[in-house]
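Good morning C.,

I know you're traveling, so I'll keep this short. The sequence:
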Amino acid sequence: MKAIDFVTRTSAGAAQYGSISENDSMMTLRAEPGQELSLNLRQSEVNGYARSGGDLQITLADGRVIILEDYFGADGVPDSRLFISADGYLNEVTLVEGGNGTLYAQYGPTEQWGKWSPSEELIFLDEDERVAAIAGTGDENVSMLGAAALFGGSGLATAAGVGAAAVAASTLIPGDGSGSGDGRIAPSVDQEGPITLGGDGVGPDTDSVTLTGRAEPGSTVTVTLGDKSVETTADDEGNWQAEFAGDTFPSDGMHTVNVTVVEPDGTTSDLAGPEITIDTTPPETSVTQGTEASGEIFNAEEFGQGIELAGSGEPGATISVTVEGVTRETVVSESGSWSVTYEAGSLPEGEYTSAVTVISRDAMGNSTTVTESIAIDTVANAVSISTSQIEGDGTINQAEEADGTTIVGTATPGAVVVVSVQGVEQTVTAGGDGSWSVTFAPGTLPQGTYEAEITASSTDAAGNVNTTTGTVQVDTRVDNFALTSSSGGADGVINAQEAQSGLEVTGTSEPGSTIVVQLGSQQVTAVAGADGSWSATFAATQITPGTYTATMTATATDLAGNTSTQTQSVTVDTEAGLLTLNADQIGGDGTINQTEAQAGVQVTGRADPGATVTVTLDGVAHEVVAGANGVWTTTYASHEITEGVHDPVLTATTTDAAGNATSVSDTVHVDTRVDNLTMGGGGFAATSDGRSVINGDVAGSGFELTGTVEPGSTVFVSIGGTRVEAAVDASGNWVASFGPGAIAGGEYDAALTVDVTDGAGNTQSLTDTVRVDTLVNTLDKDSPVEGDNVVNAAEASDGVTLTGKVEPGSTVTVDLFGKSYAAVVDASGNWRVDLPAADIPQAEESFDMVIRATDAAGNVSSVTDSLAIDTLVPDQPDVVGYFRDHSGNRNTTIETTDEDISIHRVDGPEGAQELNLYEAKDAFLNESTYHFLDAAGAPKSIPDGSELVITGTDAAGNANSTYLVLDEAGVTTVDLGSNAVDGFNIETVDLRFSDQTELTITADMLAGLSENSDTLLVRGGTDDTLTISGASKTGTKDVDGEAYSVYSFDNGSSIVVDDDIKTVI
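The tokens, ready to paste straight into the viewer:
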């Protein structure tokens, strides 16, 4: 054992140093809140950690115990930081609590806690070397070095502390600062080796390697460590320092430090420094056996043999495996493999998945943690057989085995169960409620009476097996069942006397069986005694009298529910003789009608074969012998039957071989005529000339014919091809109802027949004819109306005439515009309706019309049609401008419209000439320009001062025109009273494009300008003059945002004039 040095430092930075004697088996150190404590220990020298209240117990490998008093705070979290340090390395200890209070240590780089001073560092070297260079300058590592007074070598401590190097010096090179004997400072390297650097958290981002030495001031020093080089310069005192960090931090490996010193005078020295080994790579670690990732699950058998977890890793690395708080440790072999075993009982039994934590740590302190999971299932599936529920009672009888045997039980939900009976296996999966059921095919169980063994076995996914057995009783037959008695005595026939004594039936069967004996509809029951015998007796009242042979059936049911049947023939004869009379079959229905009487009537019955039967009808006797089949027959001729309506008595008498006599009688109805047949009126319509007729209403609604007849008769009435049966009441009144549509439609004369059959089958008929007329045979409308089936304003102005064809003699009405118009119909069926102009609406729509005709028979027919009305005239064309060149006017532009545009040039007072046009639309301006063309289609110009009529015509032919006056030199006088404007509907006169225009308008002239309107719009300017004769100003009107005056004539017509025009009244 050795003494253990330690250093403590308060949160204020004050350090205290001490040592634990090798002779002390236990030592207590007080851990102050916020304190850092570093122990001079290696990881391998610590055996374990434990918590005792607020104290931390550290057990060393040599058995000594260090107690850190009050290390844990009241919340269980450490109040101090704990480090271990040796060989120039410093690792912070982080404790993780496992099961049962066990603590596990994780060694890693320190984390920043408070304020640290680089001059106060606690890194321990080996036992002889107590000066260390720092390991890490970043925020992730805290470095510690002992004070110079404790470890010696204050010069190195000061130099190495600044810059936080991670290399320890093994020897101090003494020097008085004067260099060599000649005053020159000889190049040197302070550190000696070997030196190692590694462990968790160590790397280029958090650590550095610092090398120091001596050289002539101003010397250039190049230090090479592995594949990295750092260049520095010796200071004025001859000290130099090279730090490897970040990008210059060496890669892993064993490196020799090479130093090249170039002094100011050019002298070059090559020095060899210490060997430095760097290892910052965590050991490779994997788990290859025993976890869910390797596809393994431990069942009860495997669990009892112990569980082995294995894997691969870095040779020599320590492995710590923890499952369910139980830890097993090992070392990776030279071949790179490792394994640990959890012996039986070290882990809890059951069915569960647990986390597996594997921590691997190499000699340099680098660690790798691998987390896997282990699956343990030591619980087998539950399985049971419900033998008492098999076939409801735990016994399988013949019927139950014949339709398959169902075995039921329970198991763990979802478990697969293998069920075996008589060497036959079936597999089933238990349902969500744990129940299972399998059915074995008929014939699986041998016939007989015995116990059959049933086995049910289930193997879970882990391989755990659970097997259970049970037995079921098999009984598939009734034993020793037989009939031992016979019926009817010596002759085998039960006569009347024997029947009065009853009938006893005896036999044998399986003891305890129930026997049901059935004869006819009667049953008696017996139970087999202990010796298997049984007896059942039919009472006298249970034996049906008569002469017959019946099959008696005995059915035995044993205690297992199996059945067996025996049969026996039984003959009964309790009658003296047989005699029947089929009176109700005479004439087929017990009545003799006229036809049957004329053909002769047959009388039949039954008797014992060979018996003589005497038959008497209406006083006439016949004698007949029954045939071998017992049937007798005799026929009465027509002269033996009295005609009319009466009910004679029919009698038959016979005596059997024993002398027993029997007689039967009945009455027969004779009816040989039909009485009281008449036909009354029908529910027919009447034509305009008073004839009866079946018209469409009558045929469509149905109708009735009536009459009288003998009560009980059947009446059929036929009209044309339709035959209906009449209803006949108790008084003989009959009604034949022909339903809607029963009579075929059309125009024809139909035969009318009444056919009667009375209750006795006698027949009689009545005949007639009736007229059928169910339709208007012709109704249509002539097309087209007004040439194109659209009535425009001009066509509506003088009224509209509708015409068509109809069946001659009919009346016709036309429903249109909410009115009904009566048509004029001539003798040929031509009809005509005149629609007054006043009734035709101002609209642009299609109006429904109904044309309805009623013919002479009262049939009504209608057709629907529509009449398209378009009496809304379009707006007059609105002129935008025109184009004039040296030769005249080339085109005119108007606002674009949907109507067809035509332009006429007034050619003198007698007429106007239509111009050929080319249309060019400007969608942006919504304008259309119409270019004037010659006969060849080439552009042409019209003279200045031309007067144009621009007309817009819609699809219905309604037209509206604008009278446009173009400019010319001098005064232009416009004549609107000439014949040139005839045929146009001019509602606008546009003088805006002509200077000095004079226009005169009278009431008569205005009336002749348009058939569409009695209002004229006049546009123009201040240079234009309008003379209105006979009108007066009646108001103003806004037109497109401009003021216009309204002048009215006595006839109600008016002129709307631009206020810019000079108006003379």
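Safe travels,
E.
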